[in-house]
Amino acid sequence: MPFDFRRFDIYRKVPKDLTQPTYTGAIISVCCCLFILFLFLSELTGFIATEIVNELYVDDPDKDSGGKIEVNLNISLPNLHCELVGLDIQDEMGRHEVGHIDNSMKIPLSNGDGCRFEGHFSINKVPGNFHVSTHSATAQPQNPDMTHVIHKLSFGDKLQVHNVHGAFNALEGADKLSSNPLASHDYILKIVPTVYEDMSGKQRYSYQYTVANKEYVAYSHTGRIIPAIWFRYDLSPITVKYTERRQPLYRFITSICAIIGGTFTVAGILDSCIFTASEAWKKIQLGKMQ
């Protein structure tokens, strides 16, 4: 007796003359197809789009930086002449630089009465501070006015990613114009290393930071201390990493199969229940008529 391979067919066919189309079945079929199309487009949009996954770990991510962090500072002092404004840098490795001038620019404001300082410099990856003051001026003013507006203070690479909302420029727009002109300002920063890895595997290194601030008029036994704008920083050992990912193809195919199979199964059960109820109602009506 020859072997019939068709016995393995689990999708047995029903002749068309044994099936019966109904209006209810047609309506359910159309609604079913529209529902499948909607879910398919939703899944396709999710498959094409990228998602951002974040994780935390303890490490120094940018080991090729030579232990340095790039800093971008942009600050306006509308009541202090540019010849008086300077940037000083100190840290626990013994660095003490007064009047840093490399990669910096001073822009006069208000007909020379004020100054906008823009600087790009590096700091060591150890606790320290940098401050805007008159310490590097050849002659100290009697009453230096340290009221200011911070336009930008950022660390590391600039991240232009819409899906990542972090405190990369937390001091942007800080306005101290109404403060005591003779007060010093302390900004205490906790810097958090941040890594962003795109779909190609390229990594960019930036830094977020939290900030607390206070202002005060300082005195010593010799009298009032010259005010300054201090940025005191410390680094967090925790690194935040953002990774771009796209949904795997197998997961997309699995979702589509689940959508199609599940929708047709539920629709088939619904149609069968409606058809059975309709046939039972017809029999009841025929019984009443007889």
TrEMBL record:
Chain segments annotated as coiled-coil in the UniProt record: none
Function: Plays a role in transport between endoplasmic reticulum and Golgi.
GO cellular component: COPII-coated ER to Golgi transport vesicle; endoplasmic reticulum membrane; endoplasmic reticulum-Golgi intermediate compartment membrane; Golgi membrane
Protein's UniProt keywords contain Transmembrane: yes
Keywords: Endoplasmic reticulum, ER-Golgi transport, Golgi apparatus, Membrane, Transmembrane, Transmembrane helix, Transport
Ranges where the Endoplasmic reticulum vesicle transporter C-terminal domain occurs: 107-271
Name listed for the protein in its UniProt record: Endoplasmic reticulum-Golgi intermediate compartment protein
Main location: endoplasmic reticulum
InterPro entries: Erv, Erv_C, Erv_N
Membrane-topology annotation of the record: Multi-pass membrane protein
Localisation: Endoplasmic reticulum membrane; Endoplasmic reticulum-Golgi intermediate compartment membrane; Golgi apparatus membrane
Organism from which the protein derives: Sclerurus mexicanus
Annotated Pfam families: COPIIcoated_ERV (PF07970), ERGIC_N (PF13850)
GO biological process: one example: retrograde vesicle-mediated transport, Golgi to endoplasmic reticulum
Location of the Endoplasmic reticulum vesicle transporter N-terminal domain: 5-97
Spans through the membrane: 20-41, 249-270
Similarity section: Belongs to the ERGIC family.
